[in-house]
Amino acid sequence: MEMLLSEIARSMPGKLNSVVKAVMNQLGIADPNEAIWHEKKKGIIRFTLPPTSGITGPQWVMRCEKSGIVINWRVKEKLLSGDQFMPTKGVINDVVVLRGSLFPAGKPSTQDIFASAHTGEFTKGEKLYDPNVEVAFLIREMITREEIKKMGLSTIIVMHELFEIVNVVLLSVDGFNVGEEYPHLKLREGNYLRRWDRKCGFAFVANSFPRN
Which one of 17, 103, 113, 138 is least enclosed by Cβ atoms within 10 Å? Predict the structure, then answer.
């Protein structure tokens, strides 16, 4: 399973092509037909995001909505209006998405997912880390709903540090949902005891490092 840079460029021409070019330059890829995401080990999906550029929360809202991405009102009101969104600049994130199907029979809890990632249970001891919230926006911008479907996932839950608002919440990059014409970025209640559908994917980072 893999996602091709050329497929992104064809499906979302124009502005997103600059993202494709940035990823190609960053990874040293000359051929856009090389994979941008892969699943070399069953249940472990990997891809690298373009370098962060210091975009603030309100700027991300404007940028996403301009490109047709629907930002849940709770994201705008609760996450982007305060000091909980801390943008970075020049950081490259290597993303690892754990399939819900990796976990034992039954729906995995938020606590179980964090524990398995932090200990490297499914990645041969490679410890995974909680991503910055901005990773959710970068994934939403780069990974289309069609690609989430190709991954065999219903949504990608970004496992950033939990926010204490009314309920504990996590950002989700959704695939196709009934009645939704455009791609969405939403908040999901993610308290430690919540159990998730096995069709979800859970995004962590293997590395976050400054761009040279």
Answer: 17
The one-letter amino acid code at 186 reads K
Gap between the Cα atoms of 151 and 71, Å rounded: 23
Nearest to 151 by CA among 203, 194, 81: 203
pTM of the model: 0.80
Q: Which domain holds residue 192?
A: 39-210
pLDDT, tens digit, for every residue of 144-178? Answer: 888 888 889 988 999 987 665 444 457 777 766 65
Residues 6 or more apart whose Cβ sits within 8 Å of residue 28: none
CB contact at 8 A, 58 and 80: yes
Q: Where are the beta strands (DSSP E) in the chain?
A: 2-4, 35-41, 44-48, 70-71, 91-99, 155-164, 168-174, 184-189, 200-210
Looking at the structure of the chain, the number of domains it has is 1
Residues 95, 47 contacting (CB under 8 angstroms): yes
